[in-house]
Specification:
Mean pLDDT: 97
CATH class of the largest domain: Alpha Beta
Bound molecules: uridine-5'-diphosphate-4-deoxy-4-fluoro-alpha-D-galactose
Helix content: 25-40%
Organism: Pseudomonas fluvialis
Enzyme class: isomerase
Strand order of the largest sheet: 3-2-1-4-5-6-11
EC number: 5.1.3.2
Domain NAD-dependent epimerase/dehydratase: 3-252
Protein name: UDP-glucose 4-epimerase
Structural class: alpha/beta
Oligomer: single chain
Largest sheet: 7 strands, parallel
Strand content: 15-25%
Number of strands: 14
Length: 326
């Protein structure tokens, strides 16, 4: 198929592009490189520097290629930053996405695979969280993603635009072949920060909060390997073609690990004595976020295969050891 991958130079997008190319699809990447890296896209893949807020540039792109589906990975994802700069989040994650969707409709492209987030749920009222759990996001990041999901429902009603929204829990890990991985700047995510402490790129890992209502007092999260996320997107593509309907799926492992469990596992795998500092809670962190991903298992036939905590950390450690990345 002829596929546009917006944000294909970023963390999850670049893993998706590798998969789609290997499956024989014709892929065009559009990225503004604000957080992505050109060298995360293989030379053989068409790659356009473009901001999806730019309607004219999108028109030119869509006039040049007859896309059959659009994957959208291009959003800002830092919860803390979204609280400090909400406009930045609504502008890119909502407004620019709307510009992209309007362009799709003008060019009669009616299949859309959207990166959503567990942040749409806010503080969980029940655990594990299924897709019908109340959606009460507690920060602009989560709200911007929920708003896009709502826009997508309306566009399906009005224009028959079919979409699959995939609500990621804690994306983690790296390409098992070692060619791609996580490189955020600044990095805020737990696993890469722990591994930076293991490799000596930072002196310690800070544990944000040790007084949560969890067995060891630290927050519990559902870590899901990036290659399992990619597999779910590939299945979402089959779903949208075969079922011809829109849907929303949680993508998580269904198993939670505490911050201390993640650090202990990283110590075991790296053989390094990772220094810990205990600090106050980080604002906005729920104690426990664990997915009920039965819908994806039932309707997409999806089964996480690489998402043991050990596998996630091994692959991320392999990637960290290649720093600086060429
Ligand atoms: N943590 C630390 N120390 C750190 C970094 C994180 O203790 O230096 C803790 C956090 O407090 C949290 C856990 O590790 O309890 C995981 O934190 P991350 O920042 O890695 O991930 P989050 O759970 O905050 O956020 C992730 C995604 C968001 C998404 C959210 C939804 O990054 O985009 O999951 O569940 F919105």
């Amino acid at each position: 198929m002829k596929i546009l991958v917006v944000g294909g130079a970023g963390y999850i997008g670049s893993h998706m592009v590798k998969h789609l190319l290997r499956a024989g699809h014709s892929v065009v990447v559009a990225d503004n490189f604000s957080t992505g890296y050109r060298n995360a896209v293989p030379d053989c893949c068409a790659c356009v520097e473009l901001d999806i807020a730019n309607s004219e540039a999108l028109d030119t792109l869509f006039a040049t290629h007859s896309f059959e589906v659009v994957f959208h990975f291009a959003s800002f994802t830092q919860v803390g930053e979204s609280i400090e700069q909400p406009g930045k989040y609504y502008s890119n994650n909502l407004s620019a996405t709307l510009t992209l969707l309007q362009t799709m409709l003008r060019f009669d492209v009616k299949r859309f695979i959207f990166s959503s987030t567990a942040a749409v749920y806010g503080n969980p009222q029940t655990t594990p969280i299924d897709e019908d759990h109340p959606k009460q996001p507690i920060n602009p990041y989560g709200r911007s993603k929920l708003m896009v999901e709502q826009v997508l429902e309306d566009l399906d009603q009005a224009h028959d635009l079919k979409s699959v929204s995939l609500r990621y829990f804690n994306a983690a890990g790296a390409d098992p072949e070692g060619t791609l991985g996580e490189r955020h700047d600044p990095e805020t995510h737990l696993i890469p920060l722990i591994l930076q402490a293991a490799s000596g790129r930072r002196s310690e890992i800070t544990i944000f909060g040790n007084d949560y209502d969890t067995p060891d007092g630290t927050c519990i999260r559902d870590y899901i390997h990036v290659s399992d996320l990619v597999d779910a997107h590939a299945r979402a593509l089959d779903f949208i073609i075969e079922q011809k309907c829109s849907a929303t799926f949680n993508l998580g492992n269904g198993t939670g690990f505490s911050v201390r469990q993640v650090i202990d596992t990283a110590r075991r795998i790296t053989g390094k004595n990772i220094q810990i500092r205990e600090a106050a809670r980080r604002a906005g962190d729920p104690a426990r976020l664990v997915a009920d991903a039965h819908r994806a298992r039932d309707q997409l036939g999806w089964q996480p295969r690489n998402s043991s905590l050990e596998q996630i950390i091994e692959d991320a450690w392999h990637w960290e050891q290649q720093y600086p990345w060429s």
